[in-house]
Design a protein that fits this description.
Layout lengths: L6 H4 L16 E7 L7 E8 L4 E8 L4 E9 L4 E8 L2 E12 L2 E10 L2 E11 L4 E8 L8 E10 L3
Antiparallel strand pairs: 1-2, 1-10, 2-3, 3-4, 4-5, 5-6, 6-7, 7-8, 8-9, 9-10
Length: about 160
Amino acid sequence: MTVSVSSFAQQPCSAEPHSHDFDFWIGEWDVYPTGANKLVGHSIVQSISGGCAILENWTDTKDHPGKSINYYNPATGKWEQDWIGSGGGPQRYLNGEYKNNVMHFTYENMANGKKITGNFKFYNMGKDTVRQYQDVNNDDGKTVTVSYDLTYVRKKQ
């Protein structure tokens, strides 16, 4: 008897609708500070592992590379990102959820014995633009400081 393997078993992520929530970020990008036209980096963002993850390949204009792997975790029903760059890390972003054209993550770290929390957001601004924003909160919600605010512009083919 021959048993056939279904396409779901071969590529289970293709059957999970939320595994494509972050596809708007896939592409080759020039990156600028939001509201400015000074190039600060380049990013190549790829779908990998049969659509089960998204890999970011970042290089800033000073040749400092970094990578992130992004994936939908069906056990939690949320997206996660793990980042590591040449400047250190790693950084973990959790609770990713795509709503109202924004992929919103949260994070939590310890620094100097204090808990630091923040938001990490990707705004889907249309097929050729993504805004990436990160803030930090290190005093129980009293002050929010913008870590960075970048605009990704799709490279012309």
